[in-house]
Amino acid sequence: MTTKYFRTTLFVIAGMLCAASYGEELPELISRLQKTNGNGPVLGMVHIEDHMSKKKDESSKKPEKADLIITADANTLTVSVSGDITESRIFREFSLLRAKELVSYGPALASKLAEMKLVERGTDTHEGKPCNLWRLKSEKKESKLGMSATQRRDLELKIDAEGYPVAGSFKTQVVSKILFIKISSESHCEQHYERSGGQLMLVFDKREESVKHGKSTDKRIVTTTVEVKKD
Predict the structure, then answer these.
(1) Which residues have C-beta within 8 Å of that of residue 59, sequence separation ≥ 6?
(2) Residues 6+ apart with CB under 8 A from 1
(3) CA dist., res. 173 & res. 153, Å (int)
(4) For 7, which DSSP code?
(5) Strand locations in the chain, DSSP E?
(6) Fewer CB within 10 A of the terminal residue: the chain, N end or C end?
(7) Which helix (H) or strand (E) holds 102?
(8) pTM for this structure?
(9) Residue 109: in which H helix or E strand, if any?
(10) How many C-beta atoms surround the C-beta of residue 196 within 10 A?
């Protein structure tokens, strides 16, 4: 057998070993996140800013703002509003499910990871500390009654030395067709996580969405910041 044959065989074996290793690590992380749905008491001060605009006049729109207080323990989840409740997108869309996500994001993140495939693993830093960097991908296609949609999602996930996520960067592209009309959207999401009371809290969430329909482009940026109050 030639040297080239041996080299090719080694590359194939190495690739199979890496794939097997990746295949084991992702389910382990998902299981760990599902178990972070703890019962410890949590108090979070939440600030939300919602900015929607046309692409040509981004700076002319005034963002909507709201401040909330979320408290949670083993049996109760309470959401209080600091200030007035106004007729705004924030109050129309915010729900108890979203409040639960902010204070206990582990199960929600686990559900997202379950639909993705780990394709690359490396190292990086987060707030000056070394961490592992995972790159994940997914693709989903749907077709029904003259409508079709393709969703592609990429994720860069930073994981600390104890095996828990500390930051995530999502990129999602969706292309939809309804008869002869094509609609495309793209979103970017930056997230930071913090463990508190046995739970993984979503302490920073910035979502940028752009939707193109015809010659028009709508843009929306929603930023949610949670300050965790500790004893």
Answers:
(1) none
(2) none
(3) 6
(4) H
(5) 42-54, 64-72, 77-82, 117-126, 129-144, 147-159, 165-178, 181-196, 199-213, 216-229
(6) C
(7) helix 96-103
(8) 0.82
(9) helix 106-114
(10) 20
What region, left, alpha or beta, does residue 218 occupy, with left being phi > 0 and alpha being psi -120 to 50 degrees? beta
Residue located via tokens 């994981």: 159
Compute the CA torsion angle 86, 66, 92, 89 (nearest 10 deg): 90
Q: What is the pLDDT along the chain (231 residues), one digit of tens a residue?
A: 455 444 444 444 444 444 444 557 999 999 999 998 766 788 899 999 999 887 655 555 788 999 999 998 878 899 999 888 888 999 999 999 999 999 999 999 999 999 999 999 999 999 999 999 999 999 999 888 778 899 999 999 999 999 999 999 999 999 888 877 788 889 999 999 999 878 899 999 999 998 776 666 788 999 999 999 876
**If 0-12 CB within 10 Å is exposed, 13-18 middle and 19+ buried, where does residue 143 land?**
exposed
Specify the 3-state DSSP secondary structure of 29.
helix
pLDDT at 18: 45
- In angstroms, rounded to a whole number, what is the distance separating the alpha carbons of residues 214 and 88? 27
Give the tokens for residue 111. 């559900």
- Paired tokens of 201: 């809290």
CA–chain centroid gap for 3, Å, is 46
Closest CA to 153 of 140, 144, 166: 140
Structural tokens at position 228: 């965790």
Helices 3-34 & 106-114 angle (0-180, nearest 10): 150
Q: Residue 124 pairs with which residues in a beta bridge?
A: 131
**Paired strand residues for 158:** 133, 167
How far apart (Å, rounded) are the C-alpha atoms in residues 122 and 134? 6
